[in-house]
Amino acid sequence: MPVTAIFDRLRTAARRFASADQGNIAVIFALASVPIISFVGAAIDYSRVNAARSSMQAALDSTALMLSKDLTNGTITTSDIEARAKTYFASLYTDKSGTVAANSIQASYTPKDSSGIAKVQVTASGTLPTDFLKMAGLPTLNFGTSSTAAWGNTRMRVAMVLDNTGSMAQNGKMAALQKAATNMIDTLSTYNKQEGDVYISIIPFAKDVNVGTNYVDASWINWAEWEAEPPTLNDKTTNANSAFKKAVAGSDCPFTNNNQGFVCMDRPATLSGARSTSKIPSTGTYAGYICPGLDGGKKIAGKTNIYYNGCYTTVTGSSASCGSLNSDRCSCNGTGSSKVCHFWRGDDTPATAAARPAHATWTGCINDRDKDNDTWNIDPGSAFNDGTPSKRFYAEQWSDCLPATITPMSNQWQTLKDQITAMKPSGNTNQAVGLAWGWQSLSTTNGPIAAKAKESTYIYKDYIVLLSDGLNTQNRWSTSQSSIDDRQELLCQHIKNDATNPVTVFTIQVNINNADPKSQVLQDCVTTPNGSFQMITDPDETSTAFKNILTQISKLRVAK
């Protein structure tokens, strides 16, 4: 082929190549794929580093927490911190894609400051080989983080508010409670490294609480209702209670369960040997005495199973009168020789002393304070300065008064456990009265069972643990669950709003076979939403519920 022809073909091919555009997309994609692959590879490498850092953070958090517990419990000294940190971290760090050298794990201790706070800080660093960035000249990536466990000379006070109502006798609930509560005391006592680190109060409750008869002379007790006549008989009008107004020695008993909710007794109902009678005694010490028996709650639900501590004495004849006594102590009926006057708890003369049982016969039960003092933790004052409504606590002669009494804040572990052992199920449910006394037991100023003053060099944390197996059924005023719950809701809100003396509240509902609906008021009472309310459906779960609370109480804050 002539040379000129060859050159012509080459020129034609060159012109076609220069003008061709069919391969542009492939060329552009090939050029663009380089940075795209680089970015994807970098993202993968950095995500691996972040995963390794997260695993390291979790391991350091746990390491710092365990070191702080070891220091608190005295199992290590400050000179042991770094060696122990390396040991803990090695067992806790699970991400093996990165390399963490032992000498990169460092721990330091900061002694307590003016606020009583001590700290342990643990740091670590590591390297991770890259898969993609090494092509960009980065064969490894470094990562590291730290964790600080901060704790103080923290002292704790725990009020254990425990349901002792009659339903706790069923399904082994009381035995399970006693075991779990005793174990909790044993565990809390181990935190008491020095005097004052841990105090515990025990508040058994049913409808009332029992403060014990040692307080019989205390000024914070209000005896007005304990001494009061039955509310159904305090109407002094002529037409009301007509049978009662005419009754004299030898008359038929003017009381019936249907009309008043109680019957007659042959002497004050709280005295030994008292028995029901159909006739008013006409001879002996109690001649002419009209003594109301145990109230069955037929007319006034809040008085169910309440004793009245006294009798009406009877004076007859034209000279009978109330004299200087206030009209609410005496009523008279008729005129002339048929005139009858009745004096509640006698006319204050030695001859009628048997009609007014002494305070010494009180069994120790206390019920709700006047509204709205029942929902606040305020000083009860005394008989001379408690105001209206009364701030004092009302004594009550309740037939189901609990055998286990309130134990104020104490670190006498056996005494506390003995009170747990003494608990016996009895009566109806009033969670609010138990909760109110649990809150009061944490107070250092408001009596009547004020806790020991707190020392300024320590941090204090206060807790209430409230366990109940049923819904509210009776308080001082009502047997309506919703009405009682309303009082408790107010009380719970006031506890949660107390920023000056904050209290953490835990609640447990024992609900065997889900017999009751979940208690809304127990859920609302807790101060933190997660884990503070527990509902258990088997008595054997009581121990686990208390252990869960112990875990939260003992947990130290981890500061990142």
SSE-based structural type: alpha/beta
What is the count of helical runs? 11
What's the domain count? 3
The major sheet is characterized as: 6 strands, mixed
* CATH topology group of the largest domain: Rossmann fold
The largest beta-sheet arranges its strands as: 15-5-4-16-17-18
CATH superfamily heading of the largest domain: von Willebrand factor, type A domain
- Report the oligomer: single chain
CATH class call of the largest domain: Alpha Beta
What radius of gyration results from the CA coordinates?
Answer: 38 Å
**Binned strand content:** 15-25%
Walk me through this protein's architecture.
The chain is of the alpha/beta class and 560 residues long. The protein has 3 domains: 23-152; 155-208 and 399-559, Rossmann fold, CATH 3.40.50; 222-361, no CATH class. It is built from 11 helices and 19 strands. It has helices at residues 3-19, 24-73, 81-92, 173-189, 224-227, 242-246, 413-421, 431-442, 481-496, 520-525, 541-554, and strands at residues 106-110, 117-129, 140-152, 154-163, 198-205, 209-210, 221-222, 264-265, 291-292, 312-316, 330-333, 340-344, 365-367, 393-395, 407-410, 459-468, 503-510, 533-536, 558-559. The protein has a 6-stranded mixed beta sheet with strand order 15-5-4-16-17-18, with helices on both faces. A 4-stranded antiparallel beta sheet has the order 1-2-3-19. A 4-stranded mixed beta sheet has the order 6-13-14-7. Strand 16, helix 9 and strand 17 form a beta-alpha-beta unit. Helix 4 runs antiparallel to helix 7 (413-421) and helix 8 (431-442) runs parallel beside helix 9 (481-496). The N and C termini lie far apart (85 Å). The model is unreliable at 26-34 and 556-560 (pLDDT under 50).
